[in-house]
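2024-03-11 09:14:02 INFO receiving multi-entity request
2024-03-11 09:14:02 INFO entity count = two
2024-03-11 09:14:03 INFO echoing inputs for audit
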Amino acid sequence: MRSRGLKWLASPKLAGGLIAALIVLNLLNVVLPQRTYQSAQVMAEFARRYPQIASATSLLGLDRVFSGWPILVVSVLLLASVLACTIRRLARHRSASKRPASPRAFRRTETPSSTQSGQVDMLEWAGSTLQARGWSVESTQNELAAWRGGSGFWGSMLLHVSLVVLIIGGAASVFTSFSGTLALTEGQTVIDDESAYETVDRMPQYGAPFTGATLGLDRMEFRYERGEIVSGVARMQAGLSGAIPKQVDVRVNYPLQIAGKSYLLRDTGYAATIVVESSGTVPVPSTVALARKTPYGWADQIESGALSGSSTDSATIEMTATPVPVPAGQVLPPEKYLIQDPRLEVAVRRGGRIVWQGVLAPGQKAILPDGGGVAFLGLSLWNIYLVRSDPARWIIYLGFWMSIVGALWRFAIPERRFVLRRGVAGWEYAESARPWGAHGPGSAATTLQLDEETL
Amino acid sequence: MSAIEIGSFWATCALYAVGTVFAFTAVASGRDVWALRALVLASAGLVTQSVTIIGRWISVRHFPYIGTYENVLVGSWAIVALFIVLAWRWRGLGMGGVLVLPVCLLTLGYGLTQAAARSAVTPAYQSGWLIVHVTFAWITYSAYTSVAALAIAQLWRDRAQRTGREVPAWLPTSSRIDDLSMRLVAFGFLNNGVMIASGSIWAYRLWGAFWRWDPVETWSLLTWLAYGLYMHARLTLGWRGRRLAWVALAALFGVMMAFWGVQLLPNASFHIFQNIGDINSGGRMGQ
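2024-03-11 09:21:47 INFO inference complete, emitting structure
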């Protein structure tokens, strides 16, 4: 019963079935919106358009095929299948005799005439020739068996074990990975702890999520060609907890790596430094990261209790920043991150009514009718970083490279077998090679140049 | 596109189109001369396609690997190049052009519909791992497509034998085709592994995730597993000839889906090449 179960687990048919299951899952992955990488808006829109399908999909877990039960079932079965296959092959390899079984089919025969003494000479000659070429040889009175390339078996084993490593790495990643977003404005420094993060999307179940590392953004530098960004570098300072921060340049594809975390540059926008002045308060500059990107500039609004004055309604300051003066109704230039002559369009509302509106250059101030004002000091840039920690990815990378080395090893060292024997009508030989056919220049027949003249 | 690029592009398409017709004629008539003509035209098309690539390289000032158009331009070149090497070495395999040439023709046509104005190499594309990934992808898909071309030759031979027709002497034997297919599958399998590994490393550095079960990623993994199954079918189950040929053609479906199929669906993949050029969209999800 146990060996039947193992045989079924190790069968290529099960492997084929699992691949078919993965194909079906991937088709569902394409056709149905997935929570793994679609936004909440997209999911809501799908539910609005197809409520019954969305409901059924959610109930069956088909809106997360690669992060829910479907992939779990397939992965567990695939792991079991590969393990069973590997164990069976190892057991067969260990119990197989040193002298391999003859190739299953004698593909060619040569039947030259020969004398009795020629038969002994033939086996001796063939054996010594093959041994000189690195073959292992065993011979009896009437037969010679030779083999080489047995180590190629271990290449195949390495390839199969790599699949196990990949699945284990994937599972480990679920429990140890961290994901969050963090914002930094030019001139700002933060410590990597929970308060520094805009969002924390995934907390590891094992390992500390926050490192206490120091991160600072000095400035952003951009270079454009033909209206497109060709270089965007974040000049940063970063250091481990308690250590002196060092200068490091961060760009897309080259994240900041510190304390086991990767800080990937994801987005950039404007931050306006303003001073809100009112009677009875000390004016202090504050930098406001403008979060909303529009074709006309970066925009945002803040509540200001200081500007409420005698009104019970709080005042709102609406801002739209541009890197250069942009005429009303026109869009930003392509080089939107080159802040050369910034402007800040300001609208101050009190009780829903605009009390002041205009465009400020750096150093200019909006003076409100009943006193108070908003001064614009300048623009800077903010960055959003995707922060990731995934120690298990090294297991995955190891698995990939194991599969490549294993496959290379298996293909580079084919397992060859050769048998030469005295048949009824004369000499016969046959050979096999795994994984290639037995026709190549490395074959024993070619080595021995078995033909009428030789024999 | 520059004048040289446009001219050589259309010349390539014309040569591949006529080559396709000749390849089909070779299959229908069983005459080697038509397969040879198809091969000559395909070779000429490869030369003009090389001119197209060089023209594009000069006009955009970087090797063309960005965006759908550039990828299909170089990818289809790699497919035809490997096929031509095999077909000139083993002349009878020229009939595989019935698959290779139409596939490349359709791919080039699709790429043309996606052709964008020349663009600079934006930050998302500035990665050595990306170059490794794309290079091994081209090699992988050219190997797998050649296997499918060999499968066509195998099926044609098998059909001729089963219907009692004379099998031309210029067509390689079934075991020779099987052996060559196995070597190409192994070659493709290795390159496929490097493609996936390097893509995974690049994806982590760009998007913060080495694997997102993105449709293109999953299809490429399935393709890798499918060709692994091909090797198992040959070595463990002892499949040969026609059966194995059908496995090769079915596995090519994965290749087509990974490169082509997913591109046709909106927002289905991070690999929609034209969306990863802007620093602000390098990794945003659900946009």
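2024-03-11 09:21:48 INFO post-check: Chain B touches chain A through 67 residues (CB under 8 Å).
2024-03-11 09:21:48 INFO post-check: The CA atoms of residues 54 and 92 of chain B lie 31 Å apart.
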